[in-house]
Design goal:
mainly alpha; two-stranded antiparallel ribbon; 4 helices; 4% strand
Length: 147
């Protein structure tokens, strides 16, 4: 009779190059990692903003099609975008666009081999968050002033 308590344990049995049997370790899973780290948090946020950017492009297509369809359709789209919910969508899309842009620049820096040490990673993460906030606010200030 086998000493295994669970059939999955068989997948952790291995052999060394000399043929001796060993018990392979289980890989750590999500509960092992600290999800509040700036590195994992910004990585998750980068993916989420990519999804939000894709969903938000539906609103851009709607506005462009309304503009091409005539004044009545454009009026309906303009009404939505000037409502509270529409402004919230536009503000969110502005923040998403800036975050995704700055995160892309951060990744380009990493692709060039710079900024992999933890102090640089933390610094670039903080710069990314501040730059996103500043660029979003500046974009809206310029838009509201010129409106």
């Amino acid at each position: 009779m086998s000493s295994m308590k669970d059939a999955r344990e068989a997948t952790y049995v291995g052999r060394r190059t000399d043929g001796t049997r060993i018990q392979r370790p289980m890989s750590p899973h999500l509960q092992v990692y600290d999800m509040v780290q700036i590195t994992s948090g910004l990585s998750i946020l980068n993916r989420a903003t990519g999804v939000a950017w894709t969903v938000g492009s539906v609103f851009l297509v709607w506005w462009l099609m309304a503009a091409a369809s005539g004044p009545q359709a454009l009026g309906k789209a303009q009404w939505f975008f000037s409502s509270f919910l529409g402004m919230l969508v536009l503000a969110g899309m502005t923040a998403v666009a800036w975050f995704h842009t700055f995160a892309g620049l951060r990744h380009l820096m990493w692709d060039a081999g710079h900024g992999f040490d933890m102090p640089s990673t933390w610094k670039s993460g903080k710069v990314l968050m501040v730059a996103t906030g500043v660029a979003t606010v500046l974009t809206w200030l310029i838009a509201l002033i010129s409106w």
